Amino acid sequence: MSSSDAPVRAAGLRTRSGNAMQRTRAAILDGAAACVERDGVRRTTMGELARTGGVAKATLYNHFRTKEAVLAALLEARAEALVLQCRAVAGEDLHVPGLSAGAGTGLAAALAHAAEVLAASRPLRRVAEQEPALLAPLAVPGDGRAWAAVRKGVEAVLVAGGAQADPARVELVLRWLLSGLLWPLPGQAARAQAEALTAGLLAGASSPTPPGRASDVCSGTGLGWPAAT
């Protein structure tokens, strides 16, 4: 278990205190997003995280030991929420303006939605514009626990959209989405590229394995921010 993990309770033992802890954690993460959007990563402090999240500093330290742990938890929570949204979209028979009707429309819409969410994230855009060196490592998928969860999420979206979910396709989608952290796609471009990508994902032939895994160049332990010095 890492410092960013939420407390774990056995099934059937959900308590009011547990609910309160989850609400406090959510408030901290919302405050973290506001802090990064306003001040960036380097200027955000644990004191600012506590104040913006509306909690005492001691309460913040009960949940997270470091600023990096808070920001890593924020990224994990946002990624999990985005996966749930995309799974729902991918499984629908949609009529989306800007997308051609036909096989894979739901999957294309889900991928476009993910790209647009990343492009519209104000905290991410703040870091990309002011502190790109801190954002760059997030665009390199690693092999940590959080990255494993993200890959499973991409796999679930592909399955929901009717595509094969082999490692090569999962890695292709992940790399395409992460490119939007530093090079965000506007809506029309996101939809056009998502449609083209979906056509390839639904093709019968196996996608070529991307040259070199991220672990060959990055041994990150999770989906987290590097320490801001």
What does this protein structure show overall?
The protein has 229 residues and is mainly α. The protein has two domains: 16-63, Orthogonal Bundle (Arc Repressor Mutant, subunit A), CATH 1.10.10; 72-216. 61% of the residues lie in helices and 0% in strands. It contains ten helices and no strands. The chain has helices at residues 16-39, 46-53, 57-63, 67-90, 105-120, 122-130, 132-135, 145-160, 167-182, 187-201. Helix 1 crosses helix 4 (67-90), helix 4 (67-90) runs parallel beside helix 8 (145-160) and helix 5 (105-120) crosses helix 10 (187-201). The longest helix is centred in the N-terminal third of the chain and has 24 residues, at 16-39. The protein is globular, with a radius of gyration of 19 Å. The chain starts with 15 loop residues before the first helix and ends in a 28-residue tail after the last helix.
Short description:
The protein is mainly α.
Task: List strands and helices in order, with pairings.
Layout: H1 16-39, H2 46-53, H3 57-63, H4 67-90, H5 105-120, H6 122-130, H7 132-135, H8 145-160, H9 167-182, H10 187-201
Helix pairs in contact: 1-2, 1-4, 1-6, 4-5, 4-8, 5-9, 5-10, 8-9
**What Rg do the Cα atoms give?**
19 Å
Q: How far is the first residue's CA from the last residue's CA?
A: 26 Å
- Mean pLDDT rating: 82
Share of helix, binned: 55-70%
> How many domains would you count in the coordinates?
2
Main beta sheet: strand number and arrangement?
none
- What's the overall geometry? globular
Structural class: mainly alpha
* Uncertain stretches: 1-11, 205-221
Report the β-strand fraction as a percent range. under 5%
Question: Could you tell me the number of beta strands?
Answer: 0
Individual helix count: 10
What order do the SSEs take from the amino end to the carboxyl end, as H and E?
Answer: HHHHHHHHHH
